[in-house]
UniProtKB/TrEMBL annotation:
CDD domains: M1_APN. Residues 231-443 form the Peptidase M1 membrane alanine aminopeptidase domain. Aminopeptidase N is involved in the degradation of intracellular peptides generated by protein breakdown during normal growth as well as in response to nutrient starvation. It comes from Alcanivorax sediminis. Residues 449-545 form the Peptidase M1 alanyl aminopeptidase Ig-like fold domain. This is Aminopeptidase N. The gene is pepN. Keywords: Aminopeptidase, Hydrolase, Metal-binding, Metalloprotease, Protease, Zinc. One of its GO terms (molecular function) is metallopeptidase activity. Belongs to the peptidase M1 family.
Length: 864
């Protein structure tokens, strides 16, 4: 076996096509306890697109070579080199067949990449570079091959043997059996998958628009068979939607999804055989929250949509990751908007981007949507690639309009079907169809950071003018920034909140396309107006405008744009909170000022309870903290608590009636019912924050007789977060009731780790020692450490730093990818005041000295 090696930097500018292509792969995976033997036969052909060479290198990590043979001739040691994760062969002819036989040990694989075990089943994860842990292969997305895979295992323990494509042959040999699968579509090896296990199946069928019948098979552990209906319904909706919206049909006879408990990410789009984190596919009202249901719907759709945006047309190299991910996120967001409330969906998506991707853009890990370099590609499955990437596609959608955009995607899918391409190829199609010059627009892909758009207004006589200044702050390695194309959707609202005419044609909404650092626009408007800017969040920028409080109230009360209403509420909350943080306000006064505006929102809650809940939710402590440097987590925490308490009191009657009157008597799972539950949980939270004497009673009643997990968990959260009487008992009962349900127990862990306040560090320490805590299950690790990371007043303490860094090292020894993700929680290091910063820095440095390449890339960037 070869030895470990340090991370190296890979650069986009160094891209070279592979010297050889692999036309077909014949795999034989012989699974036995302890050791799995993988035999692969690769049909190699010199790449006509590459410079002529007779040398080829194949990736391979931790493979024990049993034998290598080239065109039937066994290679002796000395006839090949295998070091630093590379097998190099020289003197290759134009075409050749390479047969390798290697041993691997999936039972020992805790990193969960390549072939590994999860709760007694074997499964794979190959994106981005897991296939090299299974066999020798040019593990890069621009090598597309036809796969034929035979899986062999014990018949009794692994009755189910799956791989990509269609089963073509099977047989038995004593206690063992085998199945051969053929995938007719050439694919890069990151889309390879295999499963061997004993699983239950929910089966259904789907007839495509052109009349082909597809078998839909969803697999999970037997005990979870009753949790697959929602995923099945979501899958069928997604299949129909992609036909109607993009004209894309499914292309194989079988579509399979397998649920696994040990998984680093959400889910994986392997051709014909998706593998899902249980958290993204299992759903049942008794065990899954409403948010969980929505997540399942969107992730199932996301992976399904990849069949075209990712699989049929894939990425040339990993720098182009957003080509498939940004586009597919955009597709799943639009799907969810069509399935549910479009306005609520948009606000949720923007909220997520603004609260998670924007901070990434402001921190040490900031990178362009198409990065120029990386050490470990696993670290670049980021919010920037996914969510900002989706916003860039969305801007193109709006710039072209739905009809032209569809023509452009048709062209993209037709032209590049079966190929590995680039982000530029995608934009080329937009440009070609629309005739627009997208040259400047392309900077969105190469320039990192969130642009700040400062807007000022001026009224002079009958002319209202708006001046826009854009500027992108420097990011690591990129100090000079160019102006971007920024579409600003806009309306001007009169005193009554009605949009006024913007020109003499009576136009009431328009899109300004900014291209320069500074631009001014004039409108023939004589009256006082409130600008409704960036409607629908028309570009991923930070918008600065010095709104007066009455203007924000107008927007919140009257704007028809859901995003602008939400953004106005956020501005009001932030202004109040900022004053409390800096000691310039009193919580009771702030609450009194906010109360009348919020009352209006509550009065209208009947129109759309989910939207009301979004408008009434305070920004998080993390978001508030990001506005104040140096970060003083206790001041942030106290300001947040004070305002919440004061609002709890000022609107006590409203919270009480929402808590009681929104109660349903029978369970419904539609959007309206979900919105009402969300609003009621929020109301109960405010009621408890205001120390209302009824809060505990209502929470306990709800906890004891819930209609579904959203109610049960909502009640538990209120009891625990507000330390109400009954909280301890409820935690005990909950754990007893749900001890067999891992996904529910994840919630139990995270409810406790997210209680704001310094003392939570002690509970987190205890949770890490709990018998149900398992360092090898990413979901469980995230449920505690992820929650702690989002809990700044607990995280930013001496004990918090010590516990976090110790835990980080423990995770890193088992699973470097997860450690690196969790390590990102330290990204605000440079914002801490110097005492805290020094203490944390020393601890992080200690971990970094012994870290895996994955974790080390993240920590080194943070430590600077
Ligand atoms: N490609 C997957 C998705 O977004 C994510 C993923 C990446 C899963 C890497 C596993 C490993 O759909
Ligand atoms: Zn994806």
């Amino acid at each position: 076996m070869e030895t470990a090696h340090a991370a190296v930097t890979t650069r986009l500018s160094d891209y070279q096509p592979p010297a050889y292509l692999v036309d077909s792969v014949n795999l034989d995976v012989d699974i036995r306890d302890g050791v799995t033997t993988v035999t692969s036969e690769l049909a190699l052909r010199r790449n006509p697109e590459a410079a002529v060479s007779d040398t080829m290198s194949f990736n391979g990590e931790g493979l024990v070579i049993r034998s290598l043979a080239l065109d039937g001739k066994v290679l002796e040691e000395g006839e090949y080199r295998y070091e630093n994760g590379e097998l190099r062969l020289s003197g290759l002819p134009e075409q050749a067949t390479l047969i390798s036989v290697v041993d691997i040990e999936p039972e020992k694989n805790t990193a969960l990449e390549g072939l590994y075990m999860s709760n007694g089943m074997y499964c794979t994860q190959c994106e981005a570079q897991g296939f090299r842990h299974i066999t020798f292969f040019p593990d890069r997305p621009d090598v597309l091959s036809r796969f034929c895979t035979t899986v062999r295992a014990d018949k009794k323990r692994y009755p189910l043997l799956l791989s990509n494509g269609n089963p073509v042959e099977q047989g038995e040999e004593g206690e063992r059996h085998w199945v051969t699968w053929e995938d007719p579509f050439p694919k890069p090896c990151y889309l390879f998958a295999l499963v061997a296990g004993n699983l239950a199946c929910l089966e259904d069928r789907f007839v495509t628009a052109s009349g082909r019948e597809v078998a839909l098979r969803l697999y999970a552990e037997h005990r979870d068979l009753d949790k697959l209906d929602h995923a099945m319904a979501s899958l069928k909706h997604a299949m129909r939607w992609d036909e109607q919206t993009y004209g894309r049909e499914y292309d194989l006879d079988i579509y399979m999804i397998v649920a696994v408990s040990h998984f680093n990410m959400g889910a994986m789009e392997n051709k014909g055989l998706n593998i899902f984190n249980t958290s993204c596919v299992l759903a049942h009202p008794a065990t899954t929250t409403d948010a969980g249901f929505q997540r399942v719907e969107s992730v199932v759709a996301h992976e399904y949509f990849h069949n075209w945006s990712g699989n049929r047309v894939t990425c040339r190299d990993w720098f182009q990751l957003s080509l498939k991910e940004g586009f597919t996120v955009f597709r799943d967001q639009m799907f969810s908007a069509d399935m549910n409330s479009a306005a609520v969906q948009r606000v949720n998506d923007v909220d997520f981007l603004v609260n998670h991707q924007f901070p990434e853009d402001q921190g040490p890990m900031a990178h362009p949507v198409r990065p120029a370099e990386y050490q470990k590609i696993d670290n670049f499955y980021t919010l920037t690639i996914y969510e900002k990437g989706a916003e860039i596609v969305r801007m193109q959608y709006h710039l072209l309009g739905a009809e032209s955009f569809r023509k452009a995607t048709d062209l993209y899918f037709d032209r590049f079907d079966g190929q590995a391409v680039t982000c530029d190829d995608f934009v080329d199609c937009m440009e070609e169809v629309s005739g627009m010059d997208m040259g400047q627009f392309r900077r969105w892909y190469s320039q990192a950071g969130t642009p700040i758009l400062s807007v000022t207004s001026e009224q002079s006589g009958d002319t209202y003018s708006l001046t826009f200044r854009q500027q992108t702050p420097p990011t690591p390695g990129q100090s000079d920034k160019q102006p971007l194309v920024i579409p600003v959707r806009l309306a001007l609202l009169d005193k009554a909140g009605e949009p006024v005419a913007l020109d003499d044609t009576g136009l009431r909404e328009t899109v300004l396309i900014l291209r320069e650092q500074e631009q001014t626009f004039q409108f023939p408007v004589g009256q006082t107006v409130t600008p409704s800017l960036l409607r629908g969040f028309s570009a991923p920028v930070v918008l600065e405008f010095d709104y007066r409080a009455d203007q924000l109230a107008t927007l919140l009360a009257h704007d028809t744009d859901g995003y602008c209403r939400w953004s106005a509420a956020q501005r009001l909350y932030f202004a109040a909170l900022d004053r409390l943080v800096t000691g310039h306000g009193k919580a009771e006064d702030e609450a009194l000022k906010l109360a009348p505006v919020l009352e209006q929102v509550i009065e209208r809650a009947g129109e759309d309870a989910a939207q009301a809940a979004l408008l009434l939710t305070l920004p998080t402590e993390v978001a508030l903290g990001d506005r104040h440097t140096p970060l003083d987590p206790s001041a942030i925490h106290s300001a947040h608590q004070q305002l919440k308490r004061a609002l709890g009191r000022a609107l006590q009657a409203q919270w009480l009636s929402l808590s009681e009157n929104l109660l349903a008597t029978e369970l419904q799972m539609d959007g309206v019912a979900m919105g009402r539950r969300q609003l009621r949980n929020l109301a109960l939270d405010y009621l408890a924050a205001g120390e209302h004497k009824e809060a505990a009673r209502i929470a306990v009643e709800l906890f004891e007789l819930p209609l579904c997990m959203t109610e049960e968990l909502g009640a538990l959260r209120v009891l625990v977060h507000h330390r109400l009487p009954g909280a301890e008992l409820a935690l005990k009962q909950f754990a007893e009731k749900w001890k067999e349900e891992a996904l529910v127990m994840d919630q139990w862990f995270s409810v406790q780790a997210s209680v704001p306040g310094e003392t939570t560090v002690e509970s987190v320490a205890a949770l890490l020692e709990h018998p149900a805590f398992d360092w090898k299950v990413p979901n469980r690790v995230r449920s505690v450490l992820g929650a702690l990371a989002g809990n700044p007043s607990a995280f930013n303490t001496d004990e918090g730093y010590a516990l976090f860094t110790r835990a980080l090292a423990t995770v890193d020894a088992l699973n470097p990818q997860i450690a690196a993700r969790i390590g990102n929680a330290a990204a605000r290091l440079h914002k801490l005041e110097s005492g805290r910063q020094r203490a944390f820095r020393t601890l992080l440095q200690g971990v970094n000295d012994k870290a895996s390449p994955n974790l080390s890339e993240v920590l080194s960037r943070i430590l600077g």
